[in-house]
Amino acid sequence: MALVRILVDGYSLLHSWPELAPGRPRHSAAAREELVHILTRYHDAIGTPITVFFDGGGSPADGPKREGSRNVEVLFSRAGQTADEMIERAAHRFQPYGEVLAVTDDNTERDIVIGLGGSASSCLNFIREIESSLAEFAVDLNHYNRKEHNRYRHARKV
């Protein structure tokens, strides 16, 4: 089955990635924004939609419980609910459409998603995947830009 969505435990990923938003508290809005920014770039490179789940304790005070875009959706849990529960619900709801990938360092959560027919990744492995994909995307983009630049120069000479 095709991968239909990546489900990310946002705070789990932030805690595993100290190089992202260095010097910022892991639960800060700045750290969350940096994570969403890099996940948006990752989506641009791979094309798979991403949903990032945060426990509601760090949600903006009077802000919406939903943020992001269609391709990188950001959700905060409500009082009495955890990001883990939201990931489980999403994995269950996406079952008919294809496989989801859950990104978390919570082994129990990974086992539940795998039991629902999805796949799972540790945060460290996912960080490596992001870095690799973004590096490959940059190389491809540079190659494309060089090719277009040469094509443009050649067209002007004719």
CATH architecture: 3-Layer(aba) Sandwich
Number of helices: 5
Cα distance, first to last residue? 49 Å
Give the rounded overall mean pLDDT: 88
Shape: globular
Uncertain spans: 62-66
CATH fold naming: Rossmann fold
Order of helices and strands: EHHEEEHEHEH
Quaternary state reads: single chain
CATH class: Alpha Beta
Helix/strand structural class: alpha/beta
Helix content: 40-55%
Task: Please give a quick description of this structure.
This protein has 158 residues and is α/β, with parallel strands linked by helices.
Describe this structure in words.
This protein is an alpha/beta fold and 158 residues long. It has one domain: 3-Layer(aba) Sandwich (Rossmann fold). Helix content is 51%, strand content 18%. The protein has helices at 10-16, 29-46, 83-94, 107-115, 123-157, and strands spanning 3-9, 50-54, 66-68, 72-76, 99-103, 119-121. A six-stranded mixed β-sheet has the order 3-4-2-1-5-6. Helix 2 (29-46) packs across helix 5. The chain is globular.
